[in-house]
Specification:
- The structure holds 2 protein chains of 2 kinds.
- Chain A contains 9 helices and no strands.
- Chain A is mainly α.
- Chain A has one domain.
- Chain A is globular.
- Chain B is mostly helical.
- Chain B contains 2 helices and no strands.
- The longest helix of chain B has 25 residues, at about 30-55.
- Chain B starts with about 30 loop residues before the first helix and ends in a 30-residue tail after the last helix.
Chain lengths: ~180, ~110
């Protein structure tokens, strides 16, 4: 039975990574036209607003499976406080940080009306850091990342998101836009 | 006929000042959401199947402490078993049975001839 939790933890970790990729890419898409071949900006924005409903179940499954798995030795405190585990402190700690950042982004998004638009945007930009920490967590601790095919897909999606994030940053720092 | 037909004006490539018209894809919002769910579920199910067939990944970057301890113990035991001759007194392996006696009455009866 314990191996089932271990398998679920591995699979849900990759599923959470895929869901986060969809969320970040759909967030970048309206400004970068990354998904314009698929749909218009209104539909892409609707997808982005809806992605918590696929990220949360995947992340929760990953956490609960690791808590129930006897070999992983992950405690409840390790889920929220980084670098407390007896092994792989950096690798697991990065996953903990990404969970914390994910919670911050989700809570501030749900409380968006209480923030000014500028303040909310700064909070929302934390999601980039969350994606980076989750990517590093998957690279440093992901058991299935030893598979060349899975590693290729993970790297390809991360590089794609990195490319569009830089494009978005370039447009944000465009002098013409700043002057306007 | 061709000489008399009027020449049509060229189709403008750009509309507006320096702007190219791009057509967005036809997928509606619910289609994107469905695609997101199916992608995530697909990754989960495929990975679950992969993890089931690759339970023990020896070159995984992270090994839990218990697994690492067992691996160390096994390595030490194997080294001791191969390196130490039978006359040596440094390492002694004690074998114990896991079958234990009980005071409970038997639940089966053996037929006596």
């Amino acid at each position: 039975m314990d191996l089932v939790f271990w398998e679920i933890a591995r699979a849900s970790g990759l599923a959470a990574y895929a869901a986060l990729c969809i969320s970040v890419l759909s967030g970048l898409a309206p400004r970068t036209q990354a998904l314009s071949f698929l749909a218009n900006n209104r539909a892409v924005r609707a997808l982005h607003d809806w992605t918590p409903w696929i990220i949360i179940p995947a992340a929760l499954t990953h956490i609960v499976a690791l808590l129930l798995d006897a070999t992983a030795h992950i405690g409840v405190l390790d889920v929220f406080v980084p670098f407390l585990t007896s092994y792989g402190q950096l690798a697991i700690g990065l996953g903990t940080i990404s969970i914390d950042l994910l919670i911050i982004v989700l809570v501030t998004t749900w409380m968006r009306r209480r923030f000014t638009n500028n303040a909310w945007q700064w909070w929302h930009r934390v999601s980039y850091l969350g994606f980076v920490t989750m990517f590093l967590h998957s690279m440093l601790s992901g058991t299935d990342l030893t598979s060349p095919f899975i590693a290729f897909l993970s790297w390809a999606s991360a590089i794609g998101i990195g490319y569009y994030a830089l494009e978005r940053l370039g447009k944000a720092l465009n002098p013409a836009r700043i002057r306007a | 006929m061709n000489a008399k037909s009027p020449t049509l004006p060229p189709i403008p490539v750009k509309t507006g000042p320096g702007r190219t018209v791009k057509r967005s894809g036809p997928v509606p919002a619910w289609g994107l959401k469905l695609g997101g769910v199916l992608t995530t579920l697909g990754v989960f199910l495929t990975s679950f199947g992969y993890a089931g067939t690759h339970l023990y990944v020896t070159d995984a970057p992270l090994q839990p402490a218990t697994v690492a301890a067992v691996a160390t113990t096994n390595t030490t035991t194997a080294a001791a078993a191969t390196a130490v001759p039978s006359t040596a007194t440094t390492t002694t392996t004690t074998l114990t049975t896991t079958v234990q006696t009980t005071t409970r009455p038997a639940v089966t009866v053996t037929k006596k001839s």
